[in-house]
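Exercise 7. Given the encoded structure of a 493-residue chain, write a plausible sequence.
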C-alpha cells in the first residue's frame, strides 16, 4: 500500500450533501463531491489489512458481508491514493459493469465489512468508487468498446433492470448478439422507475449508460411484454439461441385490512414510477402528495424514497410506520463485525422530513389495522396500534398488538412499501419453467439454469427481493453460464 499508516493518520470524511430544505425543492441529485486531494487521503485510509473482508461477497447471518461483485477494493483505494485514476478505473471495471449505479444506490456492505471498521469508522469505499467512475465519464474515458469477435449466437435478455443489464453487458463482451426486452417505455427497470431521480439521475446517469451499451451494439426493445400478444414465448424460443430471465420481483406485498379499497391508497412502486415519468415528461400524470397528510407503511429504501418524494410534492405531513423496533445506535452483541451492521440510520428522506417538520417521520413497532374514508370513498385516516414481538407456539416471532396503544392518524394519501412477494407469474407459466416454494423461478445459485434448457434466470426473479448489487452479481453469473451453454466453455469472469 502507498500509505501503510494512513488509517492512523486520517479521519473518515465524506462529501457534504446539499442542505435538506434546499434539495427537497427539486429532483436533482443531492450528493456533492470531495476534491481530489481529499479523495486521495480517504484512499490512504485503506489499511493493507491482509484479509480484506470488504470484497468477499459472502452471506453471513442472511445478509451481505463484503461486496457481492467482489470489487478489488484495496487495489483501487491504493491507486486513488497514488493519483493513478485510469488504473483505478480499470481495476473497478474488471468486476463491476456499472459502478455509477452501485456508487449511488448500493448500501455498501463493503463498508460494513471493512477491517478498519472493526475499530474505527470504515474506509469511504462507496464514495471512492463513484468518484472513480464519475471522473472517468467527465474525462471522456468511457467510450464504446464493442467486441471484435461475434459468435453468431443470439441471446434474449428479458428485463432491463440491474440483473438484465449486467447479463447483457457480459454476453455482449463474449461476442453474442444481445437483445434486451423491456415492457416499460424506457430501459433500466428498477434503476429507471423504482429509484427517484434525486438518488439516481435518469438522463445524466442511467440513459447515458444505456446509450453507451447501444453503441456497443446491444439492442433494446421497449414497450414489449414477453409472453403475451406483444411477443409470444414461441417466437422468443425460435428467434434466440438462449434466454436470460431478469424480470425482477415486482408483486408487491398488500395489506388486506378493512378499508383497503378506498381511493388514495397506493402501492409505493406505482407512486414512485408515475412520479419519475412526470419528472422526465412534465405533462405526465402522477399521484400527488401535495397538501396531503401522507402515511407510508413500511421502511427500507422504498419507504425512504416515498418520504423524499412526498416532501418534494409539498405534503402537509408525512408519517412512516415501521413494524420492526428501532435498531440500536451501535452493533449489538449478536451482530459482530464483519456482519452487516444492523444499526439505526437516518437516510436522506428522514433527514429532509426532520428539517421540514422538526422530527424523524418514523414510528416504530407500529402497524395499521384499518383504513377510514369519507362518503366519496377517499381515505381520510389510518387506524394504528403498537405491537410487541413475541414467540408463538412454533417458536416464531410474531407481532402482537399492545392494548391501549390504538391511534387514529389523519391521511389523505397512503403508500404501501412493505416489500415484494416475488416475480409476476405470466411469463414463467407461459415458458413452463419450474418455480420454487416462494414462487421464484427455480435455478440454482452459481448455475442459473432453469428447468428449460437454454433458459437462465438471474436477480430478484430467482433469489427474491434483494440488493441491486446482488442483481449485478447474478446477472454476471447467468451470463457466464449462458455463454458456457452456447459455446461449451467460457472465459467470462
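Solution.
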Amino acid at each position: 500500500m502507498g500509505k501503510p499508516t494512513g488509517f492512523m493518520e486520517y479521519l473518515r470524511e465524506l462529501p457534504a450533501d446539499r442542505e435538506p430544505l434546499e434539495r427537497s425543492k427539486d429532483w436533482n441529485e443531492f450528493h456533492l463531491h470531495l476534491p481530489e486531494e481529499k479523495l486521495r487521503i480517504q484512499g490512504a485510509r485503506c489499511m493493507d489489512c491482509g484479509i480484506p473482508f470488504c470484497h468477499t461477497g459472502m452471506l453471513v447471518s442472511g445478509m451481505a458481508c463484503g461486496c457481492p461483485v467482489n470489487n478489488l477494493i484495496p487495489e483501487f483505494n491504493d491507486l486513488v491514493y497514488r493519483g493513478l485514476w485510469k488504473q483505478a478505473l480499470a481495476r473497478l471495471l474488471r468486476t463491476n459493469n456499472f459502478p455509477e449505479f452501485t456508487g449511488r444506490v448500493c448500501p455498501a456492505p463493503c463498508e460494513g465489512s471493512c477491517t478498519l471498521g472493526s475499530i474505527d469508522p470504515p474506509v469511504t469505499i462507496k464514495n471512492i468508487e463513484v468518484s472513480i467512475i464519475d471522473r472517468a465519464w467527465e474525462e471522456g474515458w468511457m467510450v464504446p468498446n464493442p467486441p471484435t469477435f461475434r459468435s453468431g449466437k443470439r441471446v434474449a435478455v428479458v428485463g432491463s433492470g440491474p440483473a438484465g443489464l449486467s447479463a447483457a453487458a457480459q454476453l455482449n463482451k463474449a461476442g453474442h448478439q444481445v437483445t434486451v426486452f423491456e415492457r416499460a417505455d424506457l430501459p433500466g427497470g428498477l434503476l429507471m422507475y423504482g429509484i427517484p431521480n434525486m438518488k439516481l439521475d435518469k438522463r445524466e446517469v442511467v440513459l447515458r449508460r444505456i446509450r453507451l451499451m447501444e453503441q456497443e451494439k446491444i439492442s433494446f426493445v421497449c414497450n414489449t411484454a414477453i409472453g403475451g400478444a406483444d411477443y409470444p414465448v414461441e417466437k422468443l424460443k425460435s428467434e434466440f439461441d438462449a434466454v436470460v430471465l431478469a424480470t425482477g420481483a415486482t408483486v408487491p406485498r398488500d395489506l388486506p385490512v378493512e378499508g383497503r379499497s378506498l381511493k388514495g391508497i397506493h402501492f409505493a412502486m406505482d407512486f414512485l414510477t408515475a412520479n419519475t415519468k412526470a419528472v422526465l415528461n412534465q405533462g405526465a400524470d402522477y399521484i400527488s402528495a401535495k397538501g396531503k397528510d401522507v402515511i407510508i407503511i413500511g421502511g427500507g429504501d422504498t419507504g425512504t424514497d416515498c418520504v423524499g418524494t412526498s416532501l418534494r410534492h409539498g405534503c402537509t405531513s408525512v408519517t412512516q410506520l415501521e413494524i420492526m423496533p428501532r435498531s440500536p445506535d451501535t452493533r449489538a452483541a449478536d451482530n459482530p463485525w464483519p456482519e452487516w451492521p444492523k444499526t439505526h440510520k437516518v437516510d436522506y428522506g428522514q433527514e429532509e422530513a426532520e428539517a421540514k417538520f422538526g422530527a424523524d417521520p418514523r414510528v416504530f413497532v407500529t402497524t395499521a389495522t384499518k383504513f377510514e374514508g369519507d362518503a366519496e370513498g377517499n381515505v381520510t385516516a389510518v387506524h394504528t396500534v403498537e405491537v410487541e414481538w413475541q414467540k408463538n407456539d412454533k417458536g416464531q416471532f410474531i407481532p402482537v398488538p399492545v392494548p391501549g396503544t390504538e391511534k387514529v392518524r389523519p391521511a389523505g394519501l397512503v403508500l404501501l412499501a412493505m416489500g415484494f412477494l416475488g416475480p409476476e407469474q405470466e411469463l414463467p407459466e407461459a415458458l413452463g419453467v419450474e418455480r420454487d416454494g416462494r414462487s421464484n423461478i427455480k435455478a440454482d445459485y452459481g448455475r442459473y439454469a432453469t428447468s428449460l434448457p437454454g433458459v437462465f434466470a438471474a436477480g430478484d426473479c430467482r433469489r427474491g427481493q434483494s440488493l441491486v448489487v446482488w442483481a449485478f452479481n447474478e446477472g454476471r453469473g447467468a451470463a457466464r453460464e449462458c455463454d458456457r451453454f452456447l459455446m461449451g466453455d467460457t472465459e467470462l469472469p
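Remark. DSSP finds 18 helices and 18 strands in the chain. Students should compare their own answers with the one above.
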